[in-house]
Amino acid sequence: MPTHVAIIGGGLSGLSAAFHLSRRFPSTLITIIEKHTNLGGWAQSDRIQVKDEHGRPSSVLLESGPRTLRPNANSVLELVHLLGLKDSLVLTPRSAAAARKRFLYIYGTKGLTPLPSSVATLISSPLRSLFLRAGLRDTFIGRRHRAGDESVDSFLSRHFGEDFALTLGSALVHGIYAADSRKLSVRAAFPTLCEAEKRGRGRVIAGSFLSSPTAANEYDLGDMKSVMDGISVYSFRDGLSTIANALQAHLASKPNVRLLLGTGVSRLSIGDDVEVTTSTGEQIRPTHVVSALPLPQLQALLPPSSLPHLDANPSSSVTVANFVFPASSRFHPEGFGYLIPRPRAGYGTAENPGILGTVFDSCSLAAQDTPCTPPIKVTMMLGGPYGRADMAESTLLRHLGLHLGGVRLPEVLHSRMQHHRDCIPTFTPGHVERMGELRRVLREGPWKGRLEVIGAGVGGVSVGDCVEAGRNVGTDW
Ligand SMILES: C=Cc1c2[nH]c(c1C)Cc1[nH]c(c(CCC(=O)O)c1C)Cc1[nH]c(c(C)c1CCC(=O)O)Cc1[nH]c(c(C)c1C=C)C2
């Protein structure tokens, strides 16, 4: 049993690990070391006060990282239940426009193209022939790929055709990984597609109708399943920071938990003992360590060549631009927002200076704001495979108006732009095998299972993946 666990990194993975370890080992000392003074990683929510064009005040919640959660992530629902956050939930039902209506902005077409969400909307959709050709190709050609991993673009092109992979696949990958679908591993990023291909003997659509056994895992959910019945996504009145703040308050109240904020780690080594040196020069000798850092940051703390594959993946940087407009000026359609596929001519061409997509936040999260008809909030996401997009606000707004079919935008009440460097890892093909080898070396090498490596760079980039990984830490200890 561990007597002292050091957790390096206080994002949601590290906090989840601390929460679950402190429950499982109530007499073990747990030290969380985070170089920033705030916890929660890039899930940061800020409340701002704005005045509308008539001088009336409003309070608006802005997110700089993830903004909504899906109810299928049981590990997060469990935290909501155990931390008593149910009363601050903001729920978006499946019937809401934000859940049903998603758009693409396709170069060469005017305005937004709705994505079909049912058979009826498919029949009348401008994307009908693209979807039909994709369905026919997968069903009648069906191509099983036997050797190893491949990119998302290559997988989708094989099954659904190149046009589908470019239009739908690249846009989806922008919206989740802010990455180039030609570089992202299908096995690591969309394992369910590979499983469906296997079940359908080479046909993904057929395979997705065949059920697969799901591993049973016990979660302490209280009545969260019924609360989430019919819900598409959820957040909290004060945004996603609510989870990190509640975890921090919970951990701060535990006598066996020590929070070292504003303290980095400069060295991590293993001899007879594990040794962690902090940026303040303190030497800590825990029995076990959890790294919840981005993998290249962990690599920088270790002696050269200690662990394999930590620098194998690149990562995407994203600039998040939040805009607040007057309540009276609904200028965009109701819906989730829109994604922009990779330009046919490639990234960095004149038609797109670097915009990946735009979220119509008010359609799902207006309940975070006051008064009851609050200002309209919209978030544009830039960068990723385009590289750093240093765009003037006026240029961004000109593009937004153009994407919406040439609408005249109202005066902006508030805006801000935040650049998140290397915030989302891009799992390149072979990632799953590489992480298997990393786990083997951690188990069998000098660490002998005393170091566990988690975080978005290992097993998945969603909040659910990060919280789940933290929950599973140290189950062999
Ligand atoms: C802030 C930029 C982010 C981009 N991707 C992510 C973030 C935080 C991570 C991410 N986004 C989504 C998922 C899938 C989660 C799930 O479905 O369970 C992940 C891991 C989907 C998503 N994409 C956008 C939103 C609002 C959501 C819902 C989840 C969330 O709030 O993050 C919009 C969006 N995100 C990015 C871009 C470029 C984009 C464009 C409209 C990058």
Automatic annotation (TrEMBL):
Catalyzes the 6-electron oxidation of protoporphyrinogen-IX to form protoporphyrin-IX. One of its GO terms (biological process) is protoporphyrinogen IX biosynthetic process. SUPFAM superfamilies: FAD-linked reductases, C-terminal domain, FAD/NAD(P)-binding domain. This is Protoporphyrinogen oxidase. Binds 1 FAD per subunit. Coiled coil: none annotated. GO terms for molecular function: oxygen-dependent protoporphyrinogen oxidase activity. Keywords: FAD, Flavoprotein, Heme biosynthesis, Oxidoreductase, Porphyrin biosynthesis. The gene is HEM14. The lineage of its organism: Eukaryota, Fungi, Dikarya, Basidiomycota, Agaricomycotina.
